[in-house]
Amino acid sequence: MGTIQKILIIRLSSLGDIVLSSLLIRVLRTTFPNARIDFLVKSDYADLVKFNPYLSFVIELKTDSKEELRILRDSIRNTRYDVILDIHNSIRSRYIRWLSGVRIKGVVNKRIFRRFFFVNFKWNFYRSTDSVADRYLETARKLGVKNDGLGLEVFVPEENILTVNAMMDKYKLRRYDAVIGMAPCARHFTKCWAPERFIELGIQLTKLFNTKIFIFGSKDEQDYCGDIAQMINVPTIVLL
User: What pTM was computed for the model?
Assistant: First the structure.
């Protein structure tokens, strides 16, 4: 296989999927401590990987324009990566991957047909219950990486930690045994947990613990999140 000196990971979006890539990033760094490991992501999600100490560079895709994509492709080709791991496998990531000139490529297996039949007809053809993070690891199987069992991680800059600590003091959140956040919405409905399950979980948590619950959502999701908060019907709900 030769010496691996430059690795590019492609995952353009979305929030949860990028967090799930943290296992792959870490074990790659463990396996190749001196390699350049870069991550290509849309600018909207760059903060999720920008502070990861295991990465060398974060490459941001700022727009969906064909011109920017072409320039990005040429830049990646000129960098001469030894490995590209495409854990997105979208039209844009394929365009970059196919024309990159890279000799070693790993592509995530999304189990598209199994997922289609399961989501639309509830026919379960899955032979195993491998997590998405494990599927990302599959793309680097040729490189000899192994799951280290340490799970997922998100790196937060120090200034954000200071801001959160200030909020904890301002709203007197330290008096609670736990502060729990719920984000009940997702871009695709198939990725949303049923609202009644969030309601049931919230009620159980407030019964079992001295807890403060925050419901997170965008302005467009305010009514949906508000309904969940109202159904939990406890004074510890704050809608942001």
Answer: 0.84
